Amino acid sequence: MNGLLTLLKPPGMTSHDVVSHVRRVTGAKVGHTGTLDPLAAGVLVLTLGGATRLTEHLALDGKTYRAEFVLGLETDTLDLEGQTLRETAAEHIALPDVLAAAAALTGPLDMVPPMFSAVKQDGRKLYELARQGKEVAREARRVTISRFEVLSFTPGARPRCLCEIGCSKGVYIRSLAQMLGERLGCGACLGFLLRTAQGPHALAEALTLEELSERIADQTLQPALTPLADALPGVPVVAVGAEEAQRLRQGRAVPWDAAPRDAELAMVTCGDEAICLAEVAQDGQRTCLKPRRVFAA
């Protein structure tokens, strides 16, 4: 069982819970390509089998979220699961105010990771310190918000705004909620969060855990996976013969002039099987494939 599995993570489960569940029901080697908060739901891309060797090469940095922000409420976790720290009158906040604040938070930003996060500092995860009532200084990280669109706004004593956000890796939507509240002068926290896309993998292709179990029972899971040969859209695919495939499986370089000379990497296949991710190198006048990640011995 090899490929990328796009799952719809339910709220209430940690990403590691999901990985453990998938590992148990599939019996395969499973890895993840980035976590989602337990509160959040949405797209979670997992690597199965040989795909676990591709994690560092996957282009999954761009993410899209559907998020609701609650204005006038601040909590210690920056979302509705935390303890209330402060409530501020927000009846005066109107849609134009939110639109202006969202526009100001679009583009490159310096974002401080929340205390309730898995970021490590001095060898300890921040949420471990937070649970002990400790707060430490955190270094801001440069991130990018490519899109901050306000889809709807509900005014009142505790206004709510539903937004769609496109962003780079390293963005914490809970921290973005805090930054929005600071801009508006009333504080804010995250109401709910749904990740609708991770790289090219969108919600429409995501399986629920129930659908995953059904496909395992019906032995139809493999067709639902993104094949290894399609896992790296920007990397050319090079087909080789059986003899060359065997040498590559053994970790040996092979001359292959049909490989694109201007590429750094190539996904090497033989028939329907992905053999390895190879470095494309020049040996004199010849082009060679040097295996970097072999998928099967």
SSE topology:
Elements lengths: L2 E7 L5 H12 L3 E3 L8 E8 L14 E9 L1 E3 L8 E4 L7 H10 L2 E5 L8 E2 L2 E2 H6 L9 E14 L5 E8 L5 H12 L3 E11 L2 E2 L6 H10 L18 E3 L2 H8 L4 E2 L9 E6 L2 E11 L2 E9 L3
Parallel strand pairs: 3-12, 14-16
Antiparallel strand pairs: 1-3, 2-3, 4-11, 4-12, 5-6, 7-10, 8-9, 10-11, 12-13, 15-18, 16-17, 17-18
Give a short overview.
By secondary structure, the chain is α+β, with helices and mostly antiparallel strands.
CATH fold naming of the largest domain:
Pseudouridine synthase
Number of separate helices:
6
CATH homologous superfamily caption of the largest domain:
Pseudouridine synthase
- The share of residues in helices is 10-25%
Q: What sort of overall outline do the alpha carbons produce when their principal axes are compared?
A: elongated
> Low-confidence parts, pLDDT < 50 over ≥5 residues?
none
Mean pLDDT: 91
Secondary structure class reads: alpha+beta
| Main sheet record | 9 strands, mixed
H/E series: EHEEEEEHEEEHEEHEEHEHEEEE
Integer tally of domains: 3
- How many strands appear in the DSSP assignment? 18
Give me the Rg, rounded.
23 Å
Strand content range: 35-45%
If classified by CATH, what would the architecture of the largest domain be?
2-Layer Sandwich
First-last Cα distance: 15 Å
According to CATH, what is the class of the largest domain?
Alpha Beta
State the oligomer: single chain
